[in-house]
Amino acid sequence: MTCKINADTSNGLKLESDTSGVIDIQDNGTTRLTIGDTIDIQGTELVLDADADTSISASTDDVIVFDTGGSEKMRLTAQSFGELLVATTDGTPWDNNNSDPGCGLNTSYEGLISAARSGGDPLALNRMASDGNLVAFYQDGSIEGTISVSGSTVSYNAFTGSHWSRLADDSKPTILKGTVIETIDTMCDWYELEFTNAAGVPKINEISLPDGKSVGDSHTITYHGESVTGTIRKKFNDKHPMCKISDTEDSARVYGIFKAWNEERTYNDMYVNAVGTSVVRVASGVTVSAGDLLSSKGDGTAKLQGDDIIKTKTIGKVLSNVKQETYDDGSFTVPCALYCG
C-alpha cells in the first residue's frame, strides 16, 4: 500500500490511502491499526489519559474492559448472563459464597439485574421530597404491588405472607386454590452443591439429592455450560415443616391455605398462604358472612368455626361473602384475612 502525507496550509496533516481504501499502521511489521470503512485497533488497548491508567481494551474475544485508575471497573461481554458487569468479572453473583471476587453488579439482555456486596446493603433506595412508593412491582404491564413509605412507616402493599412447604412423598398432585393445609412432624429438606467455578469464584447451587449419595459426597453438575464438581451439603432449615391437605376437623395444626406450586425450584414445593389476605376454600352448602371465623372441615375445605373467639384452630376471618370461584364439588372460595401465622 502507498500512503502520502500532505502538510499544506489548506489541509494540515493528511493521510491518503491508495485505491485499496485502507490505511495500515504497523510497528516492526505488525499491524497495530487499520483505517477503512471501520477502524480496527487489532485488539490493543485504547489509552484515554496522559498517565495511561484509563483505557478501553478487549482482554479476550467478545469482552470489552473499561479501566480507570489502573484497575478494571466495568466490562461488557457476550455471555448469556451478566452482559454488563460493574466491579466484578462474575456474571452470577446471586449464588456466590465468598466476598472475593464475588462482589459487584451485573445486568443481562433478558432484563435480570443482580448484585452482591460483602458486609453491607446490596441495594439502597432513597425517596426524597415526598411520601410514596420506594418500589413498584408490575406483571405483564399491570401494577401488582408496592413498597411505600409514609413518614417513618414502610408498608408492603398488598400483603400476603406465605411459607414454603412440601408433601411427604414429594408429589405434585392437583390441589385447588384455597385448600386448607396443615403441618406434619417432618421438616422440609433442601440440598446444595458447594463448588468453585473455573473463574475461581466460590458458588452454591441448589440440587436434588442424587440417588445413592449423601451430605459430604462429591458430585458433578453442569453450571451455566460449565462442568463443575463440588461437595453436597444440606441447606439449613429450622422452621419449614412438610404438610398435608387438612384431614382433621377443627385441626389446631392448620398451616394456611394452598396458593400454588413453586415452579422455579428443583423440588415440588408449594406456597402456603398464612397471614395477610387470601381466598379460602369453603365447603359446599356452607353459608358465610363477613366477620365469620373459619376452621378446618377435615377434607381440605373450611367451615364455620361456630364462635367469634380466635383460637389455635382458626384459619381466618371472612372479609366478604362474594364467591370468587366455585369448584366442581360445590366448594367455593371467598376472600379472608388469615390468622395462621
What can you see in these coordinates?
- With 341 residues, this protein is mainly β.
- The protein has five domains: 3-40, no CATH class; 51-116, no CATH class; 125-158, no CATH class; 162-166 and 176-184 and 241-339, Virus Head Decoration Protein, Chain: A (Beta Barrel), CATH 2.40.300.10; 191-234, no CATH class.
- Helix content is 0%, strand content 47%.
- The protein has strands spanning 3-6, 14-17, 23-27, 30-35, 39-40, 46-47, 55-57, 63-68, 71-77, 84-86, 104-107, 113-116, 132-139, 142-150, 153-157, 160-165, 180-187, 191-196, 202-207, 218-223, 226-234, 241-245, 254-261, 270-282, 293-296, 302-304, 316-318, 325-326, 332-339.
- The strands form six sheets. Strands 16, 17, 22, 23, 24, 25, 26, 27, 28 and 29 form a ten-stranded antiparallel β-sheet that branches.
- The model has no long low-confidence stretch (mean pLDDT 90).
Any idea what the CATH architecture of the largest domain is? Beta Barrel
Share of helical residues: under 10%
Count of strand segments: 29
Shape verdict: elongated
Mean pLDDT: 90
In terms of per-residue confidence, which ranges show pLDDT below 50 for 5 or more consecutive residues? none
Total count of domains: 5
Main sheet properties:
10 strands, antiparallel
Give the N-terminus to C-terminus distance in angstroms.
Answer: 80 Å
CATH superfamily of the largest domain: Head decoration protein D
Number of helices: 0
What is the radius of gyration? Answer: 30 Å
CATH-derived topology of the largest domain: Virus Head Decoration Protein, Chain: A
Write down the secondary-structure element order.
EEEEEEEEEEEEEEEEEEEEEEEEEEEEE
Q: Work out the strand percent.
A: over 45%
Structural class: mainly beta
